Amino acid sequence: xxxxxxxxxxxxxxxxHHVPLTLDEARMWAxxxxxxxVLVEAFLPNGLGLPAAQREHAERRSAVVRSGTSDARVAITxxxxxxxxxHNLDDExxxxxxxxxxxxxxxxxxxxxxHIPLDTAAKDCPPESWETGPQxxxxxxxxxxxxxxxxxxSRQADREEIAIKERICMSLGIHTTALKGDGFTAYLPNxxxxxxxxxxxxxxxxxxxxxxWQFHLSGEDVANQVSASGARVVTEAPVTYAxxxxxxx
Length: 249
Hints:
By secondary structure, the protein is of the alpha+beta class. The protein has one domain (3-245). It is 28% helix and 20% strand. It has helices at residues 23-31, 55-60, 103-107, 145-171, 191-203, 220-228, and strands spanning 3-4, 19-21, 36-43, 63-67, 70-80, 135-138, 141-142, 176-179, 183-187, 214-215, 242-245. The strands form two sheets. Strands 2, 3, 4, 5, 8, 9, 10 and 11 form an eight-stranded mixed β-sheet that branches. Helix 1 (23-31) packs across helix 5 (191-203). It is globular.
């Protein structure tokens, strides 16, 4: 596969997308008056919720937690909450924080997950973005080595920060996850409390999380599988979070 790419400045990639953030970026986003959304998914040691080919990548960016009588591996994403236009876009679709924009913004249109290939049809960029410009992919390989380094930095942050993200969630009362592939649980924390917890985590280690995680599932069939594995399943309607189902209707 050969792909060229040139940004035309349409601003579509900055509209309606929740942009994953590193811990430092999440703190910066809060300081700039933005809202962070916390997205949580998990899988079980027996492989429930995880395609075998993705195990290594998923395990490296997840934390081992307790749920019922089972362990679970929880993955947590802090993301910029962008409903509509990003609040950092000006009237000419220019980024007001361009020099300190998040890693994922710098990496676009490439994917962070190694199991998701670049699909130009799935991107918001207009057709002319792909018709001219420098070579992005040649023979199926990424050409830009600086871009490759940025992608690796993002993946490394995912791996290095997951334990502290889990403790931050526990401190904020976030302890319900979805099953990977079945959905996400989504939280919109109070940003003052969120920022204060990050600052505390920076100044001194947070207590090791002793709390228990529970699963919110899309249906009784999936809930039965998770319960049979020993994990705890919540049956009450969500109050502090939303459940985003990935299940086909």
